[in-house]
């Protein structure tokens, strides 16, 4: 398999974690989101993934998958062990909801394309962009933290005895939060979950700074 990715992409980070947890080997193919206006927007990459987003996972038969959640669920369905989604239907729904809260409510408002649009269309400066990101991360994290409080969650992992889809989405988002100086002290349960997951080798090997294209 080939993973087309960028080292700082949260979505690519998620897929790296999933592949590592599954013990699946893959070839890294760097697609810079910043060099030359974004290699992901060039015709060569759009021929592979018309959305012009990373990651894209090219399977051994040449099939290309896009969107991190779809890729992760495909991996879980085709390589069932270790499971990334809980077996119990209710717990599985809650774990998926946690991941979707990050994927749909927090991350899209903080990705590079949105920040560029805010800068070019609304003249938002660097300080304003950081404030924008911090606002949406704080709002999303507060809701996830409250959900853990209501469950009287004790840990160490969010929806089972091993890390799964919830941690796969939480850890990259917390990486972004730390990168931009977001205060995480109001979310001690999320911090605890993040710490537990990042103690696992699969997560450590997926860290942005550990990637071959890291700057």
What is the compact description of this entry?
The chain has 215 residues and is an alpha+beta fold. Helix content is 54%, strand content 7%. A hairpin with a 5-residue loop joins strand 3 and strand 4 (64-66).
Our count of domains comes out at 2
Roughly how many Å is the radius of gyration?
17 Å
Q: How would you sum up the major sheet?
A: 4 strands, mixed
Quaternary state of the chains:
single chain
- Output the helix-strand order: EHEHEEHHHHHHH
Helix content: 40-55%
The global form is: globular
As for the CATH topology of the largest domain, it is: Glutathione S-transferase Yfyf (Class Pi), Chain A, domain 2
First and last CA, distance: 24 Å
User: Strand order across the biggest sheet?
Assistant: 2-1-3-4
Mean pLDDT rating: 96
CATH class of the largest domain, named: Mainly Alpha
Number of helices: 9
């Amino acid at each position: 398999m080939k993973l087309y990715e960028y080292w700082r992409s949260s979505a690519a980070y998620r897929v790296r974690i999933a592949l590592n947890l599954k013990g699946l080997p893959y070839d890294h193919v760097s697609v810079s989101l910043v060099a030359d206006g974004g290699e992901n927007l060039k015709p060569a990459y759009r021929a592979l993934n018309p959305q012009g987003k990373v990651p894209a996972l090219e399977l051994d038969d040449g099939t290309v998958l896009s969107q991190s959640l779809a890729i992760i669920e495909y991996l879980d369905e085709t390589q069932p062990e270790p499971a990334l989604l809980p077996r119990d239907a209710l717990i599985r729904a809650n774990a998926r909801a946690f991941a979707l809260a990050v994927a749909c409510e927090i991350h899209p408002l903080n990705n590079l394309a949105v920040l560029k649009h805010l800068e070019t269309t609304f003249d938002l400066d660097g300080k304003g962009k950081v404030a924008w990101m911090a606002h949406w991360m704080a709002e999303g994290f507060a809701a996830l933290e409250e959900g853990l409080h209501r469950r009287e969650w004790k840990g160490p992992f969010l929806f089972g005895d091993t890390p799964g889809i919830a941690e796969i989405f939480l850890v990259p988002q917390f990486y972004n939060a730390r990168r931009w100086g977001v205060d995480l002290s109001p979310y001690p349960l999320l911090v605890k979950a993040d710490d537990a997951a990042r103690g696992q080798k699969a997560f450590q090997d997926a860290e942005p700074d550990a990637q071959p294209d890291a700057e």
